[in-house]
Write a structure and sequence with these properties.
Layout: H1 3-11, H2 15-32, E1 39-43, E2 58-63, E3 74-77, E4 90-96, H3 105-115, E5 116-127, H4 132-146, H5 167-176, E6 179-187, H6 196-201, H7 204-212, E7 219-226
Length: 255
């Protein structure tokens, strides 16, 4: 397992990691339940069963490398930037925190666009840098660069190896690839605390945050669809002119 994958796996075993996983699991269950087709793929993060509520007959979990312990969900091991599927063959692709821990996230999106069928769906989740959690992560990086280690100021809250992608930049990438956003929302508004006790005490912030500061949730959740603009077949520019039927002409009686 790579260092970035190990750091993410370790973080999801912490109290804030378990809290975020529970929220995302509910979000994926709701998002994919009514998506129809034949082939669905989850790229990475086996801690989440993003396709369990989906009813497509063929569902796969793709991992970057062979796991240390056999995973009954895993069907293949592949690089997210080079998927072993033909073009326009998948109806649904799910990327749970895949882009932010990829060496080339834009290339991964291009590959996903290639394998999606027209009108196929893409579901993405990722950490929101514009949030309390993102702010604390940025402060930790800044303190570490300045060499300030007092009172744990440089201690990072989120996995160190992730390059978190802002929602504005993600929208631009999707638009360039012809992927149109259907829904977009945020979640996990509790403060960046490490103990389960304080996470439970601040549970009320999920309800208030969703109402009063929705774009500052710790995680953003996007559902996009691959739009293929169809060509309109035009008829010939000319049309045969119909000859109007001649009306019978009455002949006057000479007499």
């Amino acid at each position: 397992m790579t260092d970035s994958q190990q750091s993410l796996t370790d973080w999801f075993e912490t109290p804030p990691g378990r809290y975020l996983l529970a929220w995302e699991q509910d979000g994926f269950d709701l998002a994919v339940a009514d998506m129809f087709g034949f082939n669905a793929l989850q790229l990475g993060l086996p801690q989440l069963q993003t396709l369990r509520a989906n009813r497509m007959p063929h569902r796969w979990l793709a991992l970057h490398e062979v796991p240390a312990a056999p995973d009954p969900q895993a069907a293949l091991v592949t690089d997210a930037a080079a998927l072993p599927f033909p073009a326009a063959s998948l109806d649904l692709v799910v990327l749970p925190h895949t882009l932010e821990f990829s060496a080339d996230p834009h290339h991964v999106l291009r590959e996903v666009e290639r394998v999606l069928v027209p009108e196929g769906r893409l579901v993405i989740s990722g950490f929101n840098p514009t949030s309390l959690w993102g702010w604390r992560q940025g402060r930790g990086h800044a303190m570490a660069r300045l060499g300030i280690h007092a009172f744990g100021a440089s201690r990072l809250y989120l996995p160190d190896s992730g390059a978190f992608i802002g929602t504005g930049r993600l929208r631009d990438w999707l638009r360039l690839l012809g992927l149109e956003i259907e829904t977009e929302h945020y979640g996990c508004y509790r403060p960046a605390v490490r103990s389960d006790k304080w996470l439970q005490r601040t549970a009320w912030m999920d309800r208030v945050g969703a109402r009063w500061w929705p774009i500052f949730g710790a995680v953003h959740f996007v559902v996009a669809v691959k739009r293929v603009r169809g060509m309109r077949l035009l008829g010939p520019a000319w049309k045969p002119r119909r000859t109007p039927a001649t009306a019978p002409v009455s002949v006057a009686n000479r007499r």
